[in-house]
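Record 1 of the preview.
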Amino acid sequence: MEQTHALGRRKAAVARVYLAAGKGNITINDRPVEDFFKDDSLRYIVNQPFAVTSTEGQFDTRINVVGGGIKGQAEAIRLGISRALCEVDKEAYRPALKAAGFLTRDAREVERKKPGQPGARRRFQFSKR
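->
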């Protein structure tokens, strides 16, 4: 199997995922996943597509991720890995990934701040007198 690639996005984070047959190594920005994501919950998010499709330890994954925070980056990586797995074998992996909701791009973004008020929806305190 040659290398396949896919793109994952979440909030302001963009992850480019490169998948190749291997021993299950995950490298993010030239660092092991344990160094990049110190929190177990974020590593769990990254490994979810492999767990759902029962492919742990079958693919070496190289990821470049930029922008956003660590949670958005982890979820962008999850979408990228899911899309790459679909490219590898659509019939085998797509139904499980679709049922888990990993192929849906979460389009929620931060709403912009409006002029004349302190936040996107927040207003300054109203004073009648």
